[in-house]
User: Fold these one by one.
Assistant:
Number 1:
Amino acid sequence: MSDEKIKNETGVAGTTETEAAKAESKDRETEPIIRIRDLCFEYTDKKSRFGALDHIDLDVEKGEFVCILGASGCGKSTLLNVLAGLYKPGSGKVLVNGKKITGPGPDRAVVFQHYSLFPWLTCKGNVLFGLKSGKGKHKYSGKERKEKAMEYLKNVNLEQAADKYPDQLSGGMKQRVAVARALALESDILLMDEPFGAIDPRLRLELQELISALSVEKQKTVIFVTHDIDEAILLADRIVVMEPAKIRSVEEISFPHPRKRADLIRNGEYEKLRLKLTSAFYDQLQDSIGGEVVL
């Protein structure tokens, strides 16, 4: 085939169809793992409509940890539920790996605020559920599944509680089992909806540092919903600050991983960032309630 013919067919002199296909594949690989464009969502009933998301645009890169920060009712959990495939967008598009989300899928694991464990299964049984369902990337034998379940429990420091049932566990232990079960699904994306909100401060800090380390170790892309500014700074590569139905601002977090709260609070840049986020957070809260917020 002449260079001229190749140029006519592909638009690039000296480029074959195979090379063009490879270039297209490479372009897809460089696309963000999550792409949201002009997303709108409304809650409706027979008498009224409520716009929860209004023309949202957001890209998330592979391996990135993004915190969605905002007050109650701003739409952050709605956005997470759309990404999980639990809610269908009213308009706009939501893509994962270049494909439209049509419902829940094995490429996305979800950890909710409430533990959602199966009470009739042990800790190991709950983690095995994801592996037995066959939704992970790999097919394991029965022996391999048990070994993997114990590996994930060890990741969250719960191998000694493998044979205990959920009603024998503390709140922090239950949430660690939920995290282990989500990791066992071997999904590329981890969606977390205020998972540590109901846990006491000491355990919450332990779990925050644990999930930060695991997300790096397991190379997960994480979307983490929170209303806690300090939690967002500790965990995130980027913080998306939401006001009702919209994205107010996006902040890059440059502190290196792994992060420890004790180290951050001694950093002068941490306090500057915290004040900036506090101002944005409470300004939008003041706007939403139509009055002054006193800190």
Number 2:
Amino acid sequence: MLDRLLDISTNLGIDTLLLLPVLIALEAVLSADNAIALAAIAQGLESEKQQQRALNVGLVAAFVLRMLLILTASWVLRYWQFEVAGAVYLLWLVYQHFTATEDDQHHHHGPRFASVWQAVPTIALTDLAFSLDSVTTAIALSRDVWIVLLGGSIGILTLRFMAQLFIRWLDEYEYLEDAGFITVAFVGIRLLLRVANDSWVPPQWLMILLIAGVFAWGFSKKTQTADEPATDVVAAAPANGHLTATDDDLAMPTAESAATSATTVEASRQPAGVTSRDQELPQSE
């Protein structure tokens, strides 16, 4: 789909300008699986500040690698080994995600990183592997390299904002991370099919439908937080705002009842006919 749109216009004119919004929209849709993979990688860092820095530096490196890929695509297309390497890398990420032990504190399946600079190469290489699927197809069927360069630039900017959104959404939706890596597996399998037999590659519209369906499942259930039970307790209170007394409250004696009980006990201990000194005798007139 993207490659056909890129092939519509060969001149810098009004038709090309009209094509750009479509290009941006397609980059946003087709970059969703890439963005969620990058977000999951960034979550391997402890603090939010480290995650932000890793995405910024990693996507700058990814931008350089993507531009180099576009400029050398005519040479890259001659060697199927590049696509196989990209597919194996993506499928290895999927395998690593589904076989790793979940971090109970962060609900994170992927690897943990001790520093930003350990995460940056993983982010850059992951984007490069995804680019092998989209960029090579676009450059093979479009004669205007500058349009593909523009699309790659837009894709990097889109990735940055979408990855930031997914970092927050991964904590809010229980199945979203698994859904994202299932779509990563789709891209890896698609690369392998292209190497084996180009006619086996599913059309772009089918890929978009599959990705949309998997992401719909990913957003289907929100993660339960520790605050939810407390909300249920508050909701159980009477509507008039008064709290009902518990059994412990009813069992707690008041000061008046305690004094009465003490007086009764003391009176029961006195011999018959003897009046307690605390009791005053009635005065005779």
